[in-house]
What does this fold into?
Amino acid sequence: MPGANVVLLGTGIGTETGIDGGFRLAGLPPGAYTLSVSMLGYSPRVLKDVPVAADDTLRLSVRLAPSPIRMPAIVVSATKRARNAVDAPTSVSLIGAEEIESDNSTTLNESLEYVPGVNMVGGQVNIRGSSGYSRGTGSRVLMLIDGFPALSADNADVKWDAIPMDQIARVEIIKGAGSALYGTGALGGIINVITRNPSPEPETLFRFLGGRYSEPGHPEWRWSSSGRFYEGTDISHSRQSGNTGFILGAGQKWTNGFRENAWHRRYKLYGKLRHRFKAAATLTATCNWALDDHGTFVLWKDRNEPLEVPESARGDKTVSQKLNLNVDFYHLLNPRTGYRLKSFVYRTEFDNEIGGRTSSEAYKIGQELQLDLQPAGKVALTVGAQWIHDIVNSSDHLFGDHTGLNLAAYAQAEIEPADRMTLSAGSRYDRYRTDERDAEIRLSPKLGFSYRTSGNTTLRGTLGWGFRGPSIAEIYTDATFSAIPIVPNTGLVAERSISSEVALDHRPSPWSVISAAAFWSRYQDLVEARPDASGVVQFRNVARGRIAGVEASLAAAIDPVRLEGNYTLIRAIENLPEGDLPLPYRPRHIATAGLQTTFGRLKLEGRFRFRSRILRASGLLPEGNRDLIPVYLLDLSASCAFGEVQVVLKAHNALEYNYAVVERNLGSPRRISLGITARH
It folds into this structure.
């Protein structure tokens, strides 16, 4: 069976099956291993106590049973080591490469909209209401690419255009505080983009995605007589020779935008080198570069001309570059001991021409050493140390020149006191400071359990502490945006949280699965941009807040129909001296539903998203949340596979629903897209 994932659980060793369905893992130290084999559309298989002898060859034959339900098999983000998803102590959602292709997504945030408990607000990702909207600074969800930090050193934000969409193997979404292993930024959760490895056989991958935006729904909104289009092309080649494999890729994207100043031109280069030594050691080096030249739309001209910018903003633009350099070395010394050494540089740069010129060049540089130990058959231990250095050089009337340093050590133990039970406990020590400000020290413990009551039911629970150190932009910004003055606040301190959840996964039949979770979080010193009486804005540590809610999912498949539905209830409250108010930019209700049917090679799909009205905005603009209405979006698609070529035709926002993403920003109108993915 070609394309199946083969992983030795608890280690960093794995591969994929080739065209003939075979795989080979060479140079393993002698001992007993737990082997997992998984593939989309099939039930995963786990083989325990697989014996490996010195200077011997073991031949295995593994058969996977077809499964109409997409069940997650292996996750690495929840515990920083490969393990069964059903045994993870925290809720995990996954997106596969096939789903991203069928979504016709231009950037990853579009596909994340369908994940249970995840909501995008103005391009900022929320997991169970943790983030709100902070206008492009200080993400409370930690973004990783192959386990490497991918938040910028100045704004601490996610650069969606820098994520190589055509190279994604899967995306792991970890819900709840993750600072016990990952430190600052993982206050509300973690998103880890796992890129694909070089293919065992030579492979060329081509992806085209293009589309057209519909005309505005109201004649008075029309601002251009020309059609509004977008298109992008990605091509890469992968091959392996002996113990060395590589991927080389390039791509470009272009649009003239559905609104004024929404044009962009994007270019990218990608490279990945993976070398397997004779011993059980692997070196992986990745380089990812992206350039984005785009117009800037901050606020609309007025409510009657929502697709135009004010006269003073015409011609505003930004040119930005991102560069990731990541090196990962993993060595399995014996079945019970392995270590990983990681080094990385993440460089971001932008030049703004927005009412004047500002620029920023930022570096995030770091290293991490992780040890994976299994001192006894039922005990696994992960320990590590990490340092990250932030360097920011920007305009004096933006952030200025600043540095940050984070030193950390962490440890987590997992124990299996019974065959179907896993207990975990861990903590992380962080010492973080910027410039000469007083250093902040945070200890982030976490407890968790997972219990499989039967082969089809899993109960899990977690209790964890999280924190996020304020970004350099939040502390030091001294500028004016859209006539709103922002001044520094060097007294900012880290946000803190304590969160818990209890979750249940149940598979009543081979064709259905039900998941439910109840979650609760308490926040202190949340950082929000708030104006004073004179209208001057600072990022401030606001009063305490709390979030509680439930999340439920259902998936069922009876050939040829597949049905899925998700619902999340979020009650987010800010505790103020004058009384409780809703936390800004958190909807109360989020729901998605999907229906898919297949006729031979043709697949038809409809997906619906609902987000209830946002009850409170930040107060930066006088209209408040007047235009933040409920959101109802319907997407329709048809796809067909012709051998190694897949064609997807999709209508996004098929009902042409008009809504504001945030204040003075209209959401995308209906657009029709065509996606073509070919492998050779």
About this structure: The radius of gyration is 24 Å. The chain has a mean pLDDT of 89. The longest helix spans residues 97-103.
